[in-house]
Amino acid sequence: MKLIYHGGLEINDRFVSIYNKEVEYNLPEKINIYDTTLRDGEQTPGVCFSIDEKLDIARKLDELGIPQIEAGFPIVSENEKKAVKTIANEGLNAKTICLTRTKREDIDAALDADVDGIITFMGASDLHIEVKLNKPREDIKKICMEAIEYGKDHGLFVAFSCEDATRTEIEKLLDLYKSAEEYHADRIHIADTTGSINPYAMQYLVRNIRKEIDTEIALHCHNDFGFAVANSIAGLFEGASAISTTVNGIGERAGNASLEELVMALKLLYNKDLGFKTEVIHDLSCMVSEYSGIPIPDSKAIVGNNVFRHESGIHVDAIIKNPLCYEPYLPEMIGTKRQIVLGKHSGKAAVEEKLDSMEIKVDNDKLLEIVRLVKQEREKGEEITNEKFDEILKKANVKH
Q: Which domains does the chain have, with CATH numbers?
């Protein structure tokens, strides 16, 4: 993307950071994103998508270019199975996968839903085995391998996930992953179920699993400490090549790795363009927010309302001349627009820009008067809406 701004300066992505472009990044040649907004995202307390809403989101994910959509958990209910089946038969470019326990009835439900593949999971930590499963570890491994075998025998893509993997001793993880590889699992998943690992530890974990495992490694990271995206990227540097995400980072507790944050960070900070149609991101984010009933925080990275809103006079003056003075990339990249907000910190440039948009010309003295009135009204607690700005113009005896 190239745009010309005042002064003839050509703007492109090299302005993100000169140092990002100079560093060599050892990332996988191909990175697979499997989005779980429709499964883990829907497990956010209070969220329940209708079939039509799930289909709308799936279509928008497909428009973005997501290669795999985790459409749901078919065994949960007949309606859930119907939703997954509807998506699977929609003719999307994305492959449709779903979650199953390591039980035949779950895998049969997935087969009934016409999916391309499954993620079958089992708790791997001592805590999960003792509290949830109460069976010998060898018996649990046998159940897992039988599930993998059953899925493969029925022509499915089969990913095997160790739940609570980041609180499981590495020897115990490797025992399960090596067996999964022997049973021809297509991918093994490291689930950071409680978001309890840090990026350096994730690198250590993935590095040591990669030494023993040739199968593709995926990461499913939760955001309890705010590290979900950082942990995902850290794992990519050590041999993982598939990442689980959700739109807006929704999901259980503090949510999952944010799709939009991961995609834009890889593209602009790590020089790894995954080929996504990023102009879709804003619409997708708004759709998920509307359907989930979860508002997007104004300060949310990438898609928050304040990311491209500017009030400070110094900032606005520079942005009018060249937006990248105070923006890391152009809002058009994610399908949104910049907003100049009038308020306490506004200066002449912001007010003049507003007046230009209304095709109003004033002299410098009148401009300064309008700026003073804008600050005065905002400090009274009044938001400077279009209507309020009209009132200010009347006070200043400016006709429009």
A: 29-292 (3.20.20.70), 309-395 (4.10.430.20)
Q: Is 328 exposed, middle or buried (0-12, 13-18, 19+ CB in 10 A)?
A: middle
The answer to whether 290 and 56 are in contact (CB under 8 A) is: no
Distance between CA atoms of residues 121 and 321, nearest Å = 53
Closest by CA position to 148, among listed 190, 177, 191, 112: 177
Long-range contacts of residues 24-29, Cβ cutoff 8 Å, at least 24 apart? 25/237, 25/270, 25/271, 25/272, 26/237, 27/236, 27/237, 27/266, 27/270, 27/272, 28/236, 28/239, 28/240, 28/241
Give yes or no for a contact between 150 and 178, defined as CB atoms under 8 angstroms apart. no
Tens of pLDDT, residues 328-358: 899 999 999 887 767 677 777 777 777 777 7
Cβ neighbours of residue 70 under 8 Å, at least 6 residues apart? 34, 35, 36, 38, 39, 40, 97, 98, 99, 119, 244
Burial 262-277 (b: 16+ CB within 10 A, else e): bbbbbbbbeebebebe
Decide if 319 contacts 103 (C-beta within 8 A).
no
Q: What is the CA radius of gyration of the chain?
A: 25
Measure CA 211 to chain center.
Answer: 29
Residue with tokens 């490797």: 174
Q: How far apart are CA 191 and CA 166, in angstroms?
A: 7
Give residues with Cβ within 8 angstroms of 135, minimum separation 6. 129
Q: Which two tokens stand for residue 358?
A: 């209304």
pLDDT band at residue 145 using 50, 70 and 90 as cut-offs:
very high
Residues in the chain: 400
Q: Is 199 exposed, middle or buried (0-12, 13-18, 19+ CB in 10 A)?
A: middle
User: Alpha carbon of 280 to those of 222, 284, 303, 335: distances in Å?
Assistant: 24, 6, 11, 6
- For tokens 């003049």, name the residue: 352
Question: pTM for the whole thing?
Answer: 0.88
- Beta-bridge partner residues of 218: 189, 242
SS3 5: strand
